[in-house]
Structures are given as C-alpha cells and as structure tokens.
Amino acid sequence: MVDLSHPPSARDSSPADAPPPPAPAPVRDPARTAIASVVSVVATIFGLIFLAWLVLFVTKGRFLKHTFERVASRYMERDIRVAGDFNFYFDPIDVKFLAEGMTVSNPDWAKKPNLFASKLIDTRIETLPLIFGKKQIEWLNLVDGTVDLEWDKAHKRNSWTFAGDTPFQMPLIRRAAVTGTDIHYDDAAMQIFADVHFDPINAKDSRFANNILFTGKGTARGNPFTLNGSQTSPNALMAGGRNQFELHVRAARTSVDVSGTLPAATQIEGADLAVQVRGRNLRNLFDLAGIAVPDTRAYRLRSHLTKRGQDYEFTRIAGSYGNSDIGGAMTVTVPRTGTEDRLFLKADLASRLVDMIDIGPFIGYNPDKLATQGATAAATTQHARGAYPRILPDAPLRVDAIKAFDAKVTYKVADIRQPFVPISNILLGLDLDHSLMKLSPLNFDMAGGHVDSDISINARQPAIVTDYDIRMSPTPMGKLLARFGVNDSGTTGTIKARVKMTGTGNTVRDSLATSNGRIAVILPRGTFWTSYTQLSEFDIGTFVQKMFEKKLKEPVQINCGLIGFTVRDGIAAADPILIDTSKNVMTAKGGFSFKDELLSFAFRADAKKFSVFSGQSPVGIGGHFAAPSFQIVTPELLLRGGVGVALGVLTPPAALLAFVDPGDAKAAACGPVLAGANAAAQRTLKGEPRKDIGKGKSADVKAEKDKKPIKL
Fold this sequence. Notes:
Layout: H1 30-59, H2 65-76, E1 80-82, E2 86-90, E3 95-105, E4 114-125, H3 127-131, E5 136-143, E6 146-150, E7 161-162, E8 166-167, E9 172-179, E10 181-187, E11 192-198, E12 203-204, E13 207-208, E14 212-220, E15 223-231, H4 234-238, E16 243-251, E17 254-262, E18 272-279, H5 282-288, E19 299-308, E20 311-321, E21 324-333, E22 343-355, H6 356-359, H7 367-373, H8 375-379, E23 381-382, E24 389-390, H9 399-402, E25 405-417, E26 423-433, E27 436-446, E28 449-458, E29 465-476, H10 477-480, E30 494-504, H11 508-513, E31 516-523, E32 526-528, H12 533-537, H13 540-548, E33 556-568, E34 571-581, E35 584-593, E36 598-607, E37 619-624, E38 627-631, H14 635-650, H15 670-674, H16 698-706
Parallel strand pairs: 5-9, 6-10, 22-25
Antiparallel strand pairs: 1-3, 2-3, 3-4, 4-5, 4-6, 7-8, 10-11, 11-14, 12-13, 14-15, 15-16, 16-17, 17-18, 18-19, 19-20, 20-21, 21-22, 23-24, 25-26, 26-27, 27-28, 28-29, 29-30, 30-31, 31-33, 32-33, 33-34, 34-35, 35-36, 36-37, 37-38
C-alpha cells in the first residue's frame, strides 16, 4: 500500500519522473530560402510561358487575329486586314506566321489601294535573331501575291515608307517559294515603270520540280525593256545551300547579263555576281539609271558586282569601246530613302590604247556616223540656213540628267592611236557637284610638250556658263606640225599657248559662239623650216635664188612671234599676229568666227632687205573651219601686175619697179611679243607703236570677209 500520509518531496523524486526540457527553436538558412523563392518564381514564369506556348500551339494563335490587325494597323499607320485563316504561335521556338487573304493598304495619295495583297503568306521567323533586332526568315511561302510600289509625283514619298518615315526593309529570307506573284513599280518622276511576274512553282517532297523563274517588262525614261531570270539551284536552297541566280535584261539596244550566287534569296550583300554588258552606245545603258555619260561607239564590258550597304561596287572592269580598251572600277551609291542625298557615281578608269576616232563621241560627234561614214564626214554638218559646212559639235548637254546625280571620275589614257599630233598620257578628272561639272585636270603630253586644262561647266542656272582655261607648255614645232609639212630636223622653234575664254550655251558650238576672252600662241626664238615658207612669204626673188642654189631647205630664223586673238561674242580678231624672222616681218589682219566657223585672214610678209621680184601681196585664208581656202593671187597682186604692164608699155625696164620691195619692214620689239601682249602694247625696235597689225577689232574680221576672193 502506498503511504499517503507522507507525500513525496522533491528530493525523494527520481530523474526518471522529471518532465522533458522544451525543444530548441528551428534555425532558417537565408540562402536556401532565397533559392527556393527564385526557383518558385522561375517555375511559375516557365509554367506561364509553357501554358501560353501550349495555348498558342493548340489554338495556333487564331484568337489573336483581331489583336494583330489592330496593333499592326496602329503601329504602321496602315489598314491591315486578314480575310481568312490566321496563325501566330511558336513551333517550337521559331515564330510560325500564316495569314490567308492578308492586305496592307497604300497611303491615300497612291494609285493602287493596297501595297500588299496575297492569297496566302506562310512563313517561319527565327526568334533569337529577332530578339536582337534582326529580321531573319527561315522560309517563306507566298501564293498569288501582289506588291504595288509607288512614288508620288514629287518623288518625296513612297508607298513602302511607314509611320515615323521608316522605309520597309526586306528581311533576310533564307528559303523561299513564290507562286504566281506579281510586283509592280511606278516612279513617275524618274520615268521608271516595271512589272515582274513569278511563274508558279511545283514542289514535291520538299524538292522543287523546276527552277524558280521570273519575267518582267517595263520602261525606263521612255525606253522599253524586258527581263527574265531564274533561281537555278532551288533544291540546294531548300537544304540551306546558296542561291544560284541569273538575270537577263534587254533594253535600248543594250544587253545586261548577271549571274552568280546569293547568300540568301533576298540577300545581295556580299554576293559574288558576274556582270556582262554590251551594246551600241554606253549612254543608252546609263540613261536607264538616270546617269548622264558621254556617247560611245559599240562597247562590250565585264565586271564583278558586290553590294556593301548603299554601295554597288563594280570591280575588275575590262572591255572595249570602238577600237579602244578600258578597265578599272566603279561604285554607284544609292541614296537612302527619305534623305536629301543624291545618287553618286565614283569611277577610276584607264585605257592602254585609245583610237582617235573613239574620242569623237565624248565631245559630241555622232557615234553611228563615226562608225559608218568616218571621222571627216561625221564631224561635218551643214548650216541650217546655208550651204557651208561646220565641224564644231552641237550635241546638247543633258542638263536634266546631270541634275539627278553627282560624280567623281578619273580616266587615264596611256596612248592615242592615229592622232593629228602625237598625244599620250591623258589624265582626265571629272567632278560633278549639284550641276557644276569640272573637267580638272584635263592634261596630256603632246608632241614633246604638255597641255594643262581646267574646264568648268556651270549648269546650276538656266544659262549654262562654260569657262575654258587651256595652257600649253613650250612644245617643239617640228613634232607638233610634222603632218602639216614642217621638217623636224630643220626646226628648233617651240610654241607655247594659252586659251582663256568664257561662253554661254548648252553645246560646245553655242558656248564658243558666245564666248569672250583671249587666245595667245607665242613663238620664242628658234629655227623653222617648211617647203611652203617661201610660198607664204611670196618673195619670188629669194625663192628663185634659193631654188637655183639648191638651198631651198635652209631653215628660217624666227626671232619671236605672237599669234594672238581677242574674242568678243564668238568672233576672234587678230590682236596681234606678228612674227619677226631674220629676213621678214609677217603680220596678219582679220580673224575667225565661232558663230559660222568662218576664216577671214590676210597675211603679209614684208622684207627687211631690198628684194626684186617680190610680190609684197597678202596671202588670203578664207572659207570655213571644215573647208579652208587659200588665196595666193590677190587683188593687190593683180593691181601690181597691171601697173607693171602699164609701165612696161612705156619703158620695158620700168615694169620691174612694180615688184621691187625696198626692204623697209620694221623689226619687232620681242618683249611685248613674248609676253603675249595685245596689239596696243606692241612696238618696233625703235619703240614706236606698230600700225601694221590687227587691233583685235571684230570689224576687221568682217572687212576681210567682205573682200571677194580671186580664184586661181
């Protein structure tokens, strides 16, 4: 029994009977807690993404059709509609987009209601590049599409530039299948219209049964053209291979053939393309692009084409025009849409050998006439109101064409075949900046001398103004005039010259016909020989004497000479023509006219020493540039003959008096002559003003013209 009278004390209780101590509070790990939270959030996000993906994948995103129309229309500020089925989902990562009957409207000013319309557009867009701002399409299937690209009349707006002045950029499309699709291009300002049609494509088991073919036609600045091309390796393309591309264009008696590989169906950047061009006139080809180049004879060129950004680079150019070779490189920079930039042409060209006849079209002579009629006939035209021939070119400068682009061109020519005088090492620099064309430098070696030229054609104003500045360094006369009967071995004299004029007009002929300025040809001291020298001096006594002494080839010693003209309104009057030789002083009056290409000169050679049988009569030069005439027997000489006959009737020996030259010619002071000064500054050796030379007056030219020539 238990004794209840004595309850147990604390000392009497055993440890086994004591209550257990309380458990310690759990300690939380912050790192594990954070990781758990992140995992929970990520799992939730991925769960939501997967759920969204799953919903889109199951429904194909069809419920987003109206949302897509609303958002896309607001973003692009165009009305975008999908008439039929619509898909927008991830499959599994890339974006799958499908729309039946999709249309994108044009702006209100456009002629056609829609920029784009198609029966079906089915495409897969790569997601990762899209995240980084790159539009890259893995494949595209387009059925019965229509694309209408238009510019407005002012060429300031186009139909493919959307909200924010952002032009549509064609995405990179790696693979494409285009069936029954048409592209229309309309640019009224540039006069370019084109329609391109893609033929239907049959495919089986992801392999095309035939090539992707396209054809087209249109007009460029009134010139009709046709084109056709193909994608020649579609099966390799479907497998991710490179696109074998061909394009053939025929227009304006010109053929263009392009072939090579494209990295992708819509990617020209970095392409390796071979271009071959041939035609009757290189101008016809560049006219299609709105670029003005000189006429040429028939040509054939080949090059490689690469696109880098806005630049189309033509490298390794090689070929010929006429009988001349040409090579080099050229870059055409296309301005970005919406900018004030202009089309820019940069070229670095060179020729080893150029035929003289091939230069004719560069300055305005008709290339077809040069090819069929020869240089002389092609350069000669008849005056519209007269029977006289003209040779100055009258091809107009194409002002409208040069307003559309800028250019910087360098052209080097090593040698010229069949020149009138020896010409080589031509260097031409052409700079076109907003209708201001500068041919600077225009330099070349000529007959042992050198010519430097700077020519400026300002077409910024309605009245086109041309400045000519042509400088010829001392050049041996023997080489320069060899084709005109001058003997190189007996000639040590040189010629230097300067032409500085300004004219108005859009042809070479009009510009010179209105020109003002000065022409000066200076002959420093030296010897000169030609079998025609004594004939031009018309000193019968000296001529006969030298003929019997067999010294006809003795050179003439030139002390100094100046052939100078003052040009006023296209009429060049002698100012002065003065040549001082050891035995004669040669002068001339008259001049020539750029207006009607008339020559009206009277040359006189007065002896410094007494001479018998001297005609002392001027030698006339008349006619026109294309058909000059020489008048050896002049009215003055006939008058002398008449006086001699009259005196001979009275006293036969007195007949000789009419042909006696007293030898009173006044030698020239060579200082003003060598300085190229005008007639007012010329002096005799005694310092007296000269009265026997032309004064640079246009009336002198008319006076000589009115004299009736005496035919031999």
